[in-house]
Specification:
The protein has 454 residues and is of the alpha+beta class. The protein contains 12 helices and 11 strands.
């Protein structure tokens, strides 16, 4: 919290955003509790004198404010710890602390130590120097563990604010004899060493991370009491028993399986239990899938690939009929009806859902522009017209055709004479303005008449 950039605090300043509640950043909000009684106007005389202090990795402890210091959420305070002092941040105070102590089963007796003072700038600087030793100590300790060939995994190191003690957090499957390790660590780092074993879930909570749901891990935000998770929780929720999908970042089953189990158990009360196939005239129907919250069940006849969906009420009716020895016509009809029954008809809900996502928007084709070429009669000679030319889009320049035709899209028939050619040249010459400087001799050539084209 002392190096949070999102809430405008630095390593030399006071941590937290001083909002007396929940911070919107990731580091400041780790294992935080919202004080919803802060604006209730409770008299200060009756204020509970125990304060909740948060340390590194979301670890929380309770200390008594015997000096009645004016504290605010996020204030760094110097607290009394065995064989020295430590610095933590105020995370909760007031009547909610009493409820948290009852929840965590912490007794309000003389075993609670007191708060010395609010941390000064000199205290924070000394604590920052101790925190700078944590990362090099972690790397060197891992090397020593590898040299001693101990079956343990070191995950984190926390130095005390007075730089006299360090707590090493590790996880191991079996019992580890680390007496030799403590001697080496104490002699090399010149500190008192405390080894604390934690579970894999607590390790994931201290390190933090992002789950498959896209949110921060529950073990690092609000879960502090870890309970065992069994595969029966996955069976009640109709989940596939795939270890890669059911396990979290800690390598154990996800804690959210227990968190959602109560909702599934309450919904399963109305779901009938299917222990054997349903007997119908169409054949025995085996259960393939159950949608617990929609109360739909899918069955298939004789291990067919086509599934038929019916609601739980209909399933209960068929079960009662089978107990009485009555066999219905099929899953949806008790008696036969006129007409043919299509056994190949699959589930309509699944088909409609597939069609909904399978349909893609077709691109609209552009309609071609209606270009109507000028009409002209073609001589009945039996010849097919050639490919029409592209009309001239510039009206100022006019149509310059070599053959002198009025319609550029129609060819010159074989029976045509030179009159059309001369007429075309005459019309073209009328459109052009005479240029006296065109011929160097100064004389313009006469236009070709109809006899010239013969």
């Amino acid at each position: 919290m002392s190096g949070c950039t999102n809430c405008s605090t630095d390593t030399q300043g006071v941590g937290g955003c001083q909002n007396n509640g929940s911070c919107g950043t990731g580091d400041c909000n780790k294992m935080n509790s919202f004080d919803w009684l802060s604006h209730m106007g409770i008299p200060e005389v009756d204020t509970f004198d125990v304060v909740e202090i948060k340390f590194k990795g979301g670890r929380k402890d309770y200390f008594r404010n015997s000096q009645l210091l004016p504290l605010t959420t996020g204030d760094p305070v110097v607290v009394d710890v065995p064989n020295g002092h430590h610095i933590g941040y105020v995370s909760l105070q007031g009547e909610l602390v009493r409820l948290q102590m009852q929840k965590r089963k912490v007794k309000n007796d003389d075993s609670l130590t007191s708060i010395y003072r609010i941390a000064s700038q000199k205290d924070l600087e000394k604590w920052q120097d101790a925190k700078n030793r944590e990362l090099p100590t972690l790397y060197r300790s891992k090397q020593i563990i590898d040299e001693l060939k101990l079956g343990m995994k070191l995950s984190d190191v926390e130095f005390q604010a007075d730089n006299s003690k360090a707590t090493f957090y590790y996880s191991a499957d079996d019992r580890v004899d680390f007496r030799e390790l403590i001697k080496i660590l104490a002699s090399e780092f010149k500190i008192r060493v405390e080894m604390r074993q934690i579970s894999l879930r607590q390790e994931a909570g201290r390190l933090g991370g992002i789950g498959v749901c896209g949110r921060e891990l529950c073990c690092s935000t609000w879960i502090f009491d870890f309970k065992s998770v069994t595969t029966s929780a996955a069976r009640y929720q109709n989940l596939s028993l795939n270890p890669s999908k059911l396990s979290g970042q800690c390598g154990r089953l996800k804690c959210c399986l227990n968190f959602e189990l109560d909702s599934y158990l309450s919904a399963l009360k109305d779901i009938p239990k299917i222990e054997k196939p349903l007997l119908t005239e169409a054949g025995p129907a085996k259960l393939q899938k159950t949608d617990i919250f929609r109360r739909l069940m899918w069955f298939s006849y004789n291990d067919d690939n086509n599934w038929h969906s019916i609601d739980c009420d209909r399933v209960q009716v068929i079960l009662e009929q089978n107990e009485k020895g009555i066999t219905p016509f099929n899953l949806k009809q008790d008696n036969a009806f006129e007409g043919e029954y299509d056994l190949n008809k699959t589930n309509e809900d699944l088909e409609l859902l597939d069609k909904k996502f399978a349909q893609t928007k077709r691109k609209k084709k552009r309609k071609p522009k209606n270009r109507k070429p000028p009409t002209q009669e073609i001589a009945a000679t039996g010849d097919t017209p050639s490919k029409p030319r592209r009309p001239n889009r510039n009206p100022k320049r006019g149509n310059r055709n070599r053959g002198g035709q009025e319609n550029p899209s129609q060819p010159t028939p074989k029976g045509a004479t030179g009159e059309s050619k001369g007429a075309g040249n005459a019309s073209r010459n009328r459109k052009r303005k005479p240029n006296p400087n065109r011929n160097r001799g100064g004389q313009n050539k006469p236009n070709k008449g109809p006899s010239d084209g013969a």
